[in-house]
Amino acid sequence: MTLGILGGGQLARMLAIAAAPLGIKVRSYDPSADACAGDVCELRVGDYDDNLRLTDFANGLDVVTYEFENVPTEAVKFLEPHAPVRPGKMSLATSQDRALEKPMLEQAGFELAPWRRIDSLQQLREAIALVGTPAILKTRRGGYDGKGQAIIAHADDADRAWVSIEGSPAVLESMLAFDRELSLVAVRGLDGAMAAYPLVENEHRQGILRVTSAPASGIEPSLQAAAESMAATLLESLNHIGVLTIEFFETNGALVANEFAPRVHNSGHWTIDGAATSQFENHVRAVLGLPLGPTTVRTPTVMLNCVGAMPEPTTVLADACAKLHDYCKPPRPGRKVGHVNVLGLEQGRIYEIAERMDIDLG
């Protein structure tokens, strides 16, 4: 079988690596000839609106998937007559628009922070009075790692915030006082079978994920079960095939959903070394109609993101419990260029280990 991936970044790279032991060939498609997935699989280069190149890419593929949610839905629609696209365009389109995403989460039973759809400065001023401050203004489309957002500490900040997002359609959310950030990686197979990994704890700096601790400490079984049940409802509602990740705020022992990503996710990178089956292998299995693998934890794992530049391999690998994953991307401020999974690490020693490995956690 041959799997096509729209996008050629590190997620496509890790999907291709996971597919290889299953005997599955991978072809990725990206506008950049330097896309890092090209190191480990066939890379076709073209724009997402180039139908001729998309047709050439799709020739001979059994299934197409995507590695990130900013792939144009028009490209997915164009490819569907050539090969099945999983997850489908419903998951993609919903995740691309926060004003569609939030009602979908609510319908699945998730609690959300108070929010309002914003289409004008006047609507923003009215919404601030309803939602209160502090609040955060987010563009409906685009934006990641803290981009396309503006914090509103006081009602007087409305004009500044509106200018900062260039008057784009947006949503306004109340900023919660939360205890910690969690996420759940779940997967649904072609046969409807579902599985989920344990809730994990995430630490962000400047909107970029820096640390994931798996599994999250102190999670009651009832909370894990509730998160999995609602995730199953969301997956079914979207008719989603493959991995989907939901990000949460934990507040007083309850989960408040933030957003979902219809794909493999940075907070699931620990599964490569710490779980019985990685999120990448399970996504490949799901979209190709293969049985899902077990999602059990092999060993507690802490993932440290390498942002901006990679540490020296000799420094990292001197620790027998460290697993290095270099994306082979040129260094650049704010860019995720790799990660390190540290197996069996106690959460309290994260910063000690990171300093020893010369990994800047921000």
Task: Give a description of the structure.
- The chain has 3 domains: 2-85, Rossmann fold (3-Layer(aba) Sandwich); 114-174, 2-Layer Sandwich (Dna Ligase, domain 1); 180-356, 2-Layer Sandwich (D-amino Acid Aminotransferase, Chain A, domain 1).
- It is built from 12 helices and 17 strands.
- The chain has helices at residues 10-19, 51-58, 73-79, 89-96, 98-107, 121-131, 158-164, 221-238, 271-274, 279-287, 313-317, 350-356; strands at residues 2-6, 25-30, 42-45, 63-66, 115-118, 135-139, 149-152, 170-174, 180-188, 194-196, 200-205, 208-214, 242-251, 254-261, 301-307, 322-326, 336-343.
- The strands form 3 sheets. Strands 9, 10, 11, 12, 13, 14, 15, 16 and 17 form a 9-stranded antiparallel sheet that branches.
- Strand 13 (242-251) and strand 14 (254-261) form a beta hairpin.
- Helix 1 (10-19) packs across helix 10 (279-287).
- The longest helix has 18 residues, at 221-238.
- The protein is globular and about 55 Å long.
- It starts with a strand and ends in a 6-residue tail after the last helix.
Task: Give keywords.
9-stranded antiparallel beta sheet, 4-stranded parallel beta sheet, alpha+beta, 362 residues, 12 helices, Dna Ligase, domain 1, 17 strands, Rossmann fold, globular, 3 domains, D-amino Acid Aminotransferase, Chain A, domain 1
Poorly predicted runs are: none
What is the first-to-last residue Cα distance?
42 Å
Total number of distinct structural domains: 3
* Overall pLDDT metric: 95
CATH class of the largest domain: Alpha Beta
